[in-house]
Amino acid sequence: MTGKKNLRAQEVAIENRLPIIYLVDSAGVYLPMQDEIFPDKEHFGRIFRNNAVMSSMGITQIAAIMGSCVAGGAYLPIMSDEALIVEGTGSIFLAGSYLVKAAIGEDIDNGRSAAPPHSEISGVTDYKCKDDADCLKKIRAIVDKLGKPKDAGFSRSTSQAPKADPKEIYGLIPTERAKPYDMREVIARLVDGSEYTEYKEGYGQSIITAYARIDGWAVGIVANQRKVVKARSRSAAGGEMQFGGVICSDSADKATRFIANCNQKNIPLVFLQDVTGFMVGSRSEHGGIIKDGAKLVNAVANSVVPKFTIIIGNSYGAGNYAMCGKAYDPRLIVGWPSAQVAVMGGEQASKVMLQIEVARLKAMGDPGSGAGAEITPEKEKELLDKIRSKYEETISPYYAASRLWLDAVIDPLDTRTWISLGIEAASQAPATREFNMGVLQT
Hints:
Layout: H1 2-16, E1 20-26, H2 44-57, E2 61-70, H3 72-78, E3 82-86, E4 91-93, H4 97-104, H5 115-120, E5 127-129, H6 132-143, H7 169-172, H8 183-188, E6 196-198, E7 207-214, E8 217-224, E9 229-231, E10 240-242, E11 246-247, H9 249-265, E12 269-275, E13 277-278, H10 282-286, H11 289-302, E14 307-316, H12 317-322, E15 332-335, E16 340-342, H13 346-364, H14 377-394, H15 397-402, E17 408-409, H16 415-426
Parallel strand pairs: 1-2, 2-3, 2-4, 3-5, 8-12, 11-13, 12-14, 14-15, 14-16, 15-17
Antiparallel strand pairs: 6-7, 7-8, 9-10
Helix pairs in contact: 1-2, 9-11, 13-14
């Protein structure tokens, strides 16, 4: 997980062309768990690959050697643009005394790799610092001289606080996950002046698409509407009811077009997720929900403007993908404490797994008589509770954040700050390719 965190920091720096500062005190790979950190593509070696790629991109990397940096831990600081070492605590070497003795039989003192030798003999480090405070002071002095980055050209005006009280967000999200609520009320408490311009307001109502500003930054918002809505239909005179949080063909079509518009206008995208998935059933299938959903996923995947994802409530199944889940490269993805991330909701998943477990137990039967095992209602309830408890533990936002599926679990009142900081960082990295959705089924 330490390696994954380092790689995620480098990913953020690469995407946004941000300078990166490493404060290094690393003994390298933990040998008893080397199979979990050493050989794969996204393991330890990827850090040094990223060092090299970032250098070629002109992204500044500064490393402070503040403790012992051994083996792989020695490459990261020396593959940076500039390396500082703290006298008395910092040291850097490819192999410690035990490995050198085992490999070539030489008895050595690890002190040979401290600040004076590398600053005065080998030339491995660029600055010798008397203590940590002096080291941090030198880093500030170096960063102070960096040239101005390129501007991605995102629109920003004077920031305004929302007119609607943001603290009211705490009362807007129901504790019962299936209970409907109006996502527009949440948006009004996130955007400047509580003002936004809704795109195709009366069409595809299970997704809200709107232009707004957050802390002055222009944004395009794609949000799941959690109210039950009545959609006009070509075939049904009275229209049809659509469940809140479900993506239907018309809403997928609308969101696809809106994402294309934001790319055309160079407007960053903000996804507000509370989605249970795509609409199912023969009527939806015959209406082309698969191709309409595929178009939305295609637009999200190929978007070149920065994307930021806030998981407010449910984030289930393919809905997670269509609303810019982690696999679709959001610059930042965070969750509120009310978030859940899973292939499906806990109640549905638990009942599916219960059916499988009951069938398995019945198939095993009674070893003595060979008859099928009897599953009483009490036993079935016990199994369901056990399955549900284990499943729900794995879909909490804290479980997700501990595995870096989310960058953080945040207070809803900090949402504006996270989005603003994200766009400010992204503003240093203009798009490097044109927006092209490729081949779409129409």
